[in-house]
Each structure stands twice: as structure tokens, then as C-alpha cells.
Amino acid sequence: MPFAHCRRVLLATIFVAAPLSAGAQGTRYESWSPPGTTSTQTTPASTENLLKDLKVLVDDAEKARAADRMFLRDLRDLMARYQRPWTQRLVFDDFIDGDVTRNPTWTTVSGEFWVEQGYGLRSKSVAGAPASGEANGGKISKEQLAISILGAVLQGTNKNTTNTAPAAAPAVEAKPAVLSTRARISNSFALSSSFSSWKGEGNFAYAVTQGTGSAGYRLVYNPKQTARGASLELVRVTSRGEGTIDSASINTLEDQKNHSLEWTRATDGQMIVSLDGKAILNARDASFRDPFDAVAIINAGADVIVKSVEVLGVK
Q1: 291 CB-contact burial (10 Å; exposed 0-12 / middle 13-18 / buried 19+)
Q2: At what angle do helices 44-63 and 69-82 cross, to 10 degrees?
Q3: d(CA 195, CA 179)
Q4: Whose CA is closest to 287, among 231, 241, 221, 247?
Q5: What is the pLDDT of residue 124?
Q6: Best label site of 50, 122, 195, 287, fewest CB within 10 Å?
Q7: What percent of the chain has pLDDT over 90?
Q8: Dihedrals phi, psi of 20, to nearest 5 degrees
Q9: CA nearest neighbour of 217 among 175, 281, 271, 279
Q10: How far apart (Å, rounded) are the C-alpha atoms in residues 166 and 144?
Q11: What is the spatial distance between Cα 263 and Cα 230, in angstroms, rounded to a whole number?
């Protein structure tokens, strides 16, 4: 396929995608339409057909090495921005009703979640289960005290040592706060959210999972901290463990302002993550081919407020 023809199709795509400005209304150019059509108005069907044709040309050019790889990648990114097959709303919550338990039904797996009116969904991690002697706010039961005294007496009898109080149990690491909602999420999806970050601590993540465990994908936001800058990270979670698919440094978001996040996944496993309209991550992973079963919000020590979250899928 001649490369010049590919360029002509690209120019046609740009004309279709970009609306005419007020100053261009009087020009001699008309809206482009596919051959064989009489209407000058661009329809969703014609745009979809054009994108399909352009994809074939890009695939052929890539196989024949007829164009620079960076140029072809830019073309694919351009197509991805206009080819949005996600038309079915699967999950949506803006937390205006102040209720986390319904519409949709969220389940608190761990930690605490609540809605702060005027802001959105807030959460915090909780300390892990206390060890033996720290139950009930650090108090020791009578049975535990008797056993400790008996042990100290026996130790003193055998080793002629003085009695000492039982040692405090080691601190238990805090568990992340996890909120989950069950939904049939198509393998190709678009997750978008508006959120604000208030402190440079911990990390925060959105996840799509399969089955009853945590297998699936996570999009992790790491706020700026003393030792490192802020970053976004795509993580794959399987029975074998976790693995980073792609990551990138970003500007700090701890400005207490709402930021828009979009995470899309195509049918071929291509995932693009955009922050405030700018593409940050772009990677392909085909580890999961079946639909996902749930969406989760995970807070590991961060102070992030979620204003809204939405998941779109394909029919």
C-alpha cells in the first residue's frame, strides 16, 4: 500500500475529527464523506468505517516497514482517541447521595470509607489486628495475666531471676482500606475518575479484578514523598504475584484540586492512562482475556478524595 495514500487517509481523518471553525464556514471546502455517500455531514458510522480503513493501512505499513515506528504509534494513538467502543455504562457513582452502601452497592472489605458532603468519598487505613496482649485497647485479660505471672514464677524458680512484665507485642502494619463493587466488566473497558490528593503519603489505586481474589489490573497513584516524586503505575496481579507493566513520573497532585483520570483497555490488551487529558502510560498486556467481576478502590495510607468514578464497557 503506497505510503502517500496512507497520508491522504490521515489527512481525511483529521478533517473528520476537527470541526470547522467560524472563520472556515465561508471557504470552498466541504466536510469529507466516504465515497458513495451524498451527505456532507459526518456520521458516527462513517467515522467508524474510516478508522477501520485507517487501521488496515497502518497494519500494512507496519508489516512492510513502510513508515517510521514512532509515526505509526502516533497514528494508533490518534485512532484510539476517536475510536471509543465503550458505550455501555457498567458502574457509576458521584457519591452525592452520601451513601456508600447502595446505588451502586459497595462493600467495605477493610478500612473505613465515608462520604464527606461537598467533597466526595474519603477513606483511611486501619491498624492490623492486635497481638495477644494488646486486645481490647492494650488491656490484658485476667487469664493472660495469670499465665504471664505463672510463667514468670516458673522462670524465676528455674533461673533465679526477678519477675518482669510481659514484653509488648510488636506493632502490626496497617491494612489498606479496600472498597469493592461487583459488576460484569467487559475485558475492554474505560474507567474514569475525578479525584483530589491532600497529603504526600502512601499510595492510592483503582483495580479491576477477576474471581474472588485480587487477580487483575491496578492503576496506582504514588503521591510525591521526600525520597521520590509522584508517579502513576500500571500493575498486573496474578497468582504468581505482582508485576509492573508501565510507570511514569508525574507532577505532584497534592494541590487539593480535582484531577481527571482515564484508564482505557482495548480488545487487544492495549491500555492507555491519561491524566487531565494528557496520555501518561501506554502499554499492552494480554494476561487477562475474560471479563472482570469487580471494581475496587484501594487506599494504602494516602489522603485522596474521590469525587466520582465511572466504568464503561462494550456490548
Answers
A1: middle
A2: 160
A3: 16
A4: 241
A5: 87
A6: 287
A7: 51
A8: -70, 135
A9: 271
A10: 10
A11: 18
**Residue written as cell 466541504?**
30
Sequence-separated (6 or more) residues with CB below 8 Å from residue 168: 133, 134
CA distance 111 to 124: 6
* pTM score over 0.70: no
Angle, helix 69-82 to helix 3-17, in steps of 10 degrees: 30
**Count of other CB atoms within 10 angstroms of residue 187:** 18
For every residue of 230-294, which 3-state class applies, written as one string?
CEEEEEEEECCEEEEEEEEECCCCCCCCCEEEEEEECCCCEEEEEECCEEEEEEECCCCCCCEEE
Each residue's pLDDT tens digit, 66-118: 778 777 777 776 666 566 789 999 999 999 999 998 889 999 999 999 999 99
Closest CA to 267 of 207, 187, 185, 183: 187
Burial of 11 (0-12, 13-18, 19+ CB in 10 A): exposed
Q: What's the distance, Cα to Cα, between the start and end of the chain in Å? A: 33
